Recover the amino acids of this structure.
């Protein structure tokens, strides 16, 4: 029984990490109908910004929630800038061209960031400093055999908070209303006086900032970061977003948690080598039987 | 218009590749059979290593060891009056890159011998190419038995995994006195899979029990599901024959799950990064290795002094293996007056009782070195010597 509970805890904590990345993925898709494959790489850049800023500011010398927030803020700002540049340099020139062109460009941007990451940061894994230490004994909460790492509850908490904040921005603010308008129709939105280019920029910056936050949090939980670290989590987060219904923020979080749980149980009770295959099998099944995802609503193609 | 021009340049590239390809094949026939000779005043040798990538410290340490050996040899007048010139290519820790690198070294740089690789998966990718061109290849520290079985030009100066697995199994049974061990192996790594099998073989023969056999894939960062399954079986120790980046994370997550038993592993743990990533959690774990820097023997301490003078750090086992591999190759070259690849190969095969930093090296009929291994314990101030096991 404890084994099963422990698997549930492991799965939820893994899922909360996918959720952090999936939120940004799904938001950009929801607004722009663009699958930003570079999202996983922005997350990687976030982790490195977090690492370098904590090394230069010596944040690891007094680990606290404050140092964690400083590193996270810096990473979010840095990633927002990266997101802005990606959109401006790679996607904006392609506005109005067929969707497949933008999609291929997204793959190109993703590869570009992976390999320039290896040039700039070096391709050997680096250690992410410990920015936060729990006061619990040994840094772990123990309930008998059941062990919970407080860091992982923080990750889960932050992903839920970010999800709520995002829902608020999208549905309750002027910017959000503009985003939704752009998502319905670029042309009509701009006819109504909405600066579509600026709104799209903001969307990208917001999504990238979320990826940056995810990078720092993942660095804390799995303190080994390298330039290719975004590839697999990026794909998994994409699958999580599809699972929950792409474009739906709550769906992305639920999809990510389901995926995390499924992985933990498959590895724990069956074959560890099926871990990555499972995610893709889930995606195929969902596309076959419920293409809109668990939370997706059917949107009829506008004529 | 633009597309037409693209098509045209593509055609040019393809035809260039075809002509180049044919030419290369012509070269091959002349050099197979070990007819390649050293010409001029320099002896060109090549090195393929993982200078970057997941196992970057393997490559850099080995490279430092090799450079040190070359510096010494050249200062002592080179080999039969000829200076040694090294070309090093990085493979980023990928087998396919390793194969490309050795092909380039042989066909373009015209090296007469190749040193490398550390990881068995990459040596296995390189060996058939060295064999095909008849160029002797000396692996410093690939321990999977398959490596040298790939051809009679392939050598190694380290022990092999059946022995290493035996060493750790006996250590677990006799010194740690444990009977129930769990396995966590990297299924994408020839070295890890092989070493786990050899460990299990000896451990079971000695009356031990393998309570659970779990696996992961290189590059994974989350091992909690496997470790939870392992914890449930209450092992007294866990054998994790992987590479240091993953092992560091495994150690951390094992402690987080309250799995407070010693971890054990092989020479793939040997890196300063192990303790950096593993932190406190990896302390109290054991692994088998090629040498210990605490060895008081003169030749070991001498090497450490020279290495520290150049690189400011204590050499790890892979640096010592790189140094020994280069030295063994130079010894063979000294005994080959014509310096043809065939001669060098024959001399390598006859290496006997060469006193290296990592022990006496004798190449057996399978082109493997027969040597003793040491067991080290991870402490907070470094790797502490535990015991030496003779073959």
């Amino acid at each position: 029984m404890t084994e099963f509970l422990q698997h549930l805890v492991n799965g939820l904590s893994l899922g909360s990490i996918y959720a952090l990345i999936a939120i940004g993925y799904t938001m950009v898709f929801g607004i722009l109908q663009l699958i930003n494959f570079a999202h996983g790489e922005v997350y990687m850049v976030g982790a490195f910004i977090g690492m370098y800023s904590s090394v230069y500011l010596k944040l690891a010398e007094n680990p606290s929630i404050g140092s964690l927030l400083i590193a996270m803020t810096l990473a979010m700002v840095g990633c927002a800038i990266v997101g802005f540049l990606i959109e401006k340099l790679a996607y904006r020139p392609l506005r109005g061209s067929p969707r497949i062109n933008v999609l291929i460009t997204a793959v190109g941007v993703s590869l570009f960031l992976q390999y320039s990451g290896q040039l700039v940061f070096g391709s050997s894994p680096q250690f992410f400093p410990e920015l936060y230490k729990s006061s619990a004994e040994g840094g772990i909460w123990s309930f008998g055999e059941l062990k919970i790492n407080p860091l992982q509850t923080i990750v889960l908490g932050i992903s839920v908070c970010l999800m709520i904040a995002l829902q608020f921005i999208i549905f309750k603010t002027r910017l959000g209303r503009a985003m939704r308008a752009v998502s319905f129709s670029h042309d009509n939105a701009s006819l109504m006086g909405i600066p579509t280019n600026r709104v799209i920029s903001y969307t990208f910056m917001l999504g990238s900032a979320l990826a940056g936050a995810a990078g720092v949090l993942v660095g804390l939980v799995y303190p080994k970061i390298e330039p290719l670290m975004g590839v697999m989590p990026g794909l998994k987060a994409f699958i999580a977003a599809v699972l929950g219904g792409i474009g739906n923020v709550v769906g992305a979080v639920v999809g990510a948690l389901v995926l995390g749980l499924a992985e933990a149980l498959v590895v724990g009770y069956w074959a560890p080598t099926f871990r990555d295959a499972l995610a893709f099998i889930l995606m195929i099944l969902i596309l076959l039987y419920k293409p809109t995802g668990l939370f997706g609503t059917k949107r009829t193609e506008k004529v | 218009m633009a597309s037409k021009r693209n098509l045209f340049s593509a055609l040019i590239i393809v035809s260039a590749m075809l002509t180049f390809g044919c030419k290369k094949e012509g070269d091959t026939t002349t050099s197979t059979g070990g007819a390649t000779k050293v010409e001029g005043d320099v002896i060109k040798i090549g090195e393929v290593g993982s200078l970057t990538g997941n196992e970057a410290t393997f490559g850099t340490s080995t490279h430092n060891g090799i450079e040190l050996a070359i510096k010494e040899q050249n200062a002592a007048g080179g080999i039969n009056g000829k200076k040694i010139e090294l070309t090093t290519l990085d493979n980023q820790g990928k087998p396919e890159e390793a194969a490309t690198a050795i092909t380039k070294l042989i066909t373009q740089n015209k090296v007469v011998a190749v040193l490398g690789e550390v990881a068995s998966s990459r040596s296995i990718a390189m060996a058939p190419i060295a064999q095909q061109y008849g160029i002797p290849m000396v692996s410093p520290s690939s321990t999977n038995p398959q490596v040298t079985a790939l051809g009679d030009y392939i050598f190694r100066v380290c022990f092999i995994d059946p022995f290493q697995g035996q060493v750790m199994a006996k250590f677990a049974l006799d010194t740690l006195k444990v009977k129930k061990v769990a396995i966590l192996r990297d299924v994408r790594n020839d070295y890890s899979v092989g070493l786990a099998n050899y460990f299990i073989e000896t451990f079971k023969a000695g009356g031990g029990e393998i309570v659970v056999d779990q696996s992961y894939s290189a590059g994974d960062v989350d091992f909690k599901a496997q470790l939870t399954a392992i914890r449930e079986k209450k092992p007294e120790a866990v054998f994790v024959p992987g590479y240091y980046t993953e092992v560091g994370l495994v150690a951390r997550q094992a402690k987080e799950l309250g799995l407070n038993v010693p971890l054990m592993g092989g020479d793939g743990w040997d890196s300063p990064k192990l303790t950096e990533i593993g932190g406190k959690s990896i302390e109290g774990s054991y692994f088998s290795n090629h040498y210990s820097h605490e060895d008081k023997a003169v030749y070991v301490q001498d090497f450490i002094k020279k290495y520290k003078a150049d690189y400011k750090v204590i050499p790890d086992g892979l640096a010592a293996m790189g140094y020994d591999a280069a030295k063994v190759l130079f010894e063979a070259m000294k005994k080959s007056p014509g310096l043809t690849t065939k001669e060098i190969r024959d001399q390598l095969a006859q290496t006997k009782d060469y006193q290296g930093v990592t022990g006496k090296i004798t190449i057996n009929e399978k082109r493997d070195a027969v040597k003793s291994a040491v067991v080290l314990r991870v402490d907070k101030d470094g790797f502490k010597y535990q015991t030496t096991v003779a073959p």
User: Anything to note?
Assistant: Chain A has a mean pLDDT of 87. Chain A touches chain B at residues 3, 6-7, 10-11, 13-14, 118, 122-125, 127, 138-140, 142, 145, 147, 149, 222-224, 226, 228-229, 232, 263-269, 272-273, 275-276 (CB under 8 Å).
